[in-house]
Amino acid sequence: MTKKFYKNEKFQVWFFPILYFLLAVSIVITGCFIFKKKFYQPIVVNGQSMWPTLSGGGIISEDSTTYHLRYHYGLADINKSSVYGLHRFDVVVTYYPQGWGGSSNDYKIKRVWGFPGETVALTYNEETLEYTFRAYKQGHPTFEIKSTRKEFTQTFETFYTEQGQTKYKESSLTYSVNEFVLPNKTFRTSHINPTGGSSKPPRVFHKDLKNDEYFVMGDNWQGSTDSYDNMTNPNRLTANELQGRVICFNAYVTYNSVTSETTNMHKIPERYDF
User: Fold this and answer.
1) Range of 68's domain?
2) Do 255 and 69 touch, CB atoms closer than 8 A?
3) Residue 98 and residue 274: Cα distance in Å, rounded?
4) Taking residues 144-168, what's their average pLDDT?
5) Are 113 and 215 in contact (CB under 8 A)?
6) Statement to judge: residues 152 and 198 lie in one domain
7) pTM for this one?
8) Are 264 and 109 in contact (CB under 8 A)?
């Protein structure tokens, strides 16, 4: 009886197509899971240490009851070969060594300034208010770039409640920033606050890197804990801490009119905090 059932033409017409379909779906899902775990991983930025390049957080409304949450998100190449193929000023995902500040279990996102075995130096011109970065290898200069002081305007939306309806208005702040222009990329540092004065002294350094040590910094020099703050820390950031290279991040995920009671509903996973 069973053999006759399996040989039945009607059974074969619907059974085998469904079986092949489920097999194909399982292969695709498994492949995507492996691809994501081994090669690429989505990231969401939570914090301001890479401002103005990347940012994530909330703007409280005028009545202090609603929030406008806006986060950069993107993709990181976590294949280990991406770490050894880094170029200067690439943006990377990394863990911090013990004692560097913040949770060592959270991902951090920073920009690579110096590579193993180099001497890196950042100087500041008090007349032009601009920076010069130089890199040396075995005492010989190998790289130099100067910043240009420019104005940068940030536009954002502030949400508020009026007659029971949630409304918003656009606001903006203008900052003085230092812009570094390279052949294939441009990035800005937000060392100067909106009033035009510096809340911290100029960020300058001269650092000899060990043969396994990288030097990374966030673009927001006033609000970033990075290699600059840990130059005397014996625990160095090495290739073991570097997890991958960020390959795209030009997008936002936005939560509008989120009440303070429901903010946790949209909490970004801890492994993606930066």
Assistant:
1) 42-272
2) yes
3) 16
4) 76
5) yes
6) yes
7) 0.73
8) no
